[in-house]
């Protein structure tokens, strides 16, 4: 077998080998690095890979650690964890439930709206699902809600942090797409390409996030009309109505101001995402202090949780760098390029196939695992086919949101199962998410058919 073909075969086997080891439960970062090293050694023995290429890894790692853009990741995580630990999110959820309780489906609508607000102010999916599961799920079940509808609403609304800025997924994708787009444009002879920034991706994701919120809310309204017994009203007692307006203002205004300060400064060009993230982190501390919820214990818990989540994400990124080097230098990128370029249907078919692959991988892999593996492989080919990088990034982000929702390994389902009452069967959670996965697919199709939903706001800004 000629060396070029052998290298492509080995790179393909390595990709499926990594997926297999991950399904067996091995740690992600060590699987990515370990399997890639093994296949690198096999490739070296057959003369299709030069191990001296690993010498570029230290420079890559230093580049990640010194990247100003990626500094925003731990800052946004800190902001989200602080809002969750100081129970600001809990107060917001309880207050909005009272506000909409008199309507059929009102509790469900309040969960969707609070999920959107928490996504825009925290972006931490696990904390959002757990918080809403602890507070809203018992209230919805007591009110007579269909368990499938209640769990579906909570899981789907909790994952809005994947697509609604300031999503940490969008930060990583923005950083990756920026470098890939520059490289692709230079290879095409464009030595002054229009830069792609994380702020552009945030702006592009804003309206698609609104589309998802409207789809979720529309489904709840549809259920309230066609099946009112599945989501009955929960009237607020008269004594609790007094002072409700003030309670709503107190719970709603501070998070709204924080959202405006963070996202407004990014979209308005006043601050970079990293600078806005620092404002958000300080703002979350101030909100906790104003609510008399700030203590050394909460601060310590927040810092530890932030360090843990950040370390987990970056060590996956480091392992993915080893995979990227071996895969590309053994000819895997040529294999992918030939496959996508020769599809009948051209660019449209190539994008659909990549989205379908990511959707299927979402059944078995986490979001960060998918973007660190798939984006470096497929994005250069798609951008070379003149796909808009901002549209691609947002489309991928909405698609990857399903990785938190789809059984059997949807993490949002596991988060909710961990805090749901023991008498609630797991099958109800799995069945309840099906309509919302369908809504996700409708949202993806909408962006596919009307890319202006993504590209309009970045162009205007």
Description:
The mean pLDDT is 86. Helices cover 75% and strands 0% of the residues. The protein has 461 residues and is mostly helical. It has one domain (3-46, 54-460). Pfam families: DctM. Belongs to the TRAP transporter large permease family. One of its GO terms (cellular component) is plasma membrane. It is a multi-pass membrane protein.
Q: In terms of structural class, how would the helical and strand content be classed?
A: mainly alpha
Low-pLDDT residue intervals, each spanning 5 or more residues:
none
- Please indicate the count of domains: 1
User: What general form does the structure show?
Assistant: globular
Rounded mean pLDDT score: 86
Number of strands: 0
String of helices and strands: HHHHHHHHHHHHHHHHHHHHHH
Give me the Rg, rounded.
Answer: 23 Å
Number of helices: 22
Termini Cα gap: 53 Å
Strand content: under 5%
Question: Brief overview, please?
Answer:
Part of the tripartite ATP-independent periplasmic (TRAP) transport system. With 461 residues, the protein is mostly helical. It has helices spanning 3-23, 28-45, 57-65, 72-85, 88-100, 106-121, 125-142, 147-158, 168-187, 198-226, 238-241, 244-267, 273-290, 296-329, 332-341, 346-361, 367-384, 389-401, 411-419, 426-432, 434-449, 452-460.
